[in-house]
Amino acid sequence: MVLNTLKRLAWLNIMSRKAQERLAHNERRVERRDKMLTHDMTKERATVEEVFDQTTRMVVFDLLKSGVLYELNGVVSSGKEARVYWGTDKEGKDLAVKIYLTSSAEFKKGMLKYIEGDPRFKAVKRDTRALIAVWAQKEFRNLKEASEANVRVPKPIAVKSNVVVMEFIGKDGVSAPSLKEQPPTDPERIYRILVTYLKRLYQKAKLVHGDLSEYNIMLWKGRPVIFDVSQSVSIVHPMADFMLRRDLTNLNRFFSRLNVKVYPVEELYKMVVG
Question: Hey, which residues are catalytic here?
Answer without folding.
Answer: 211, 228
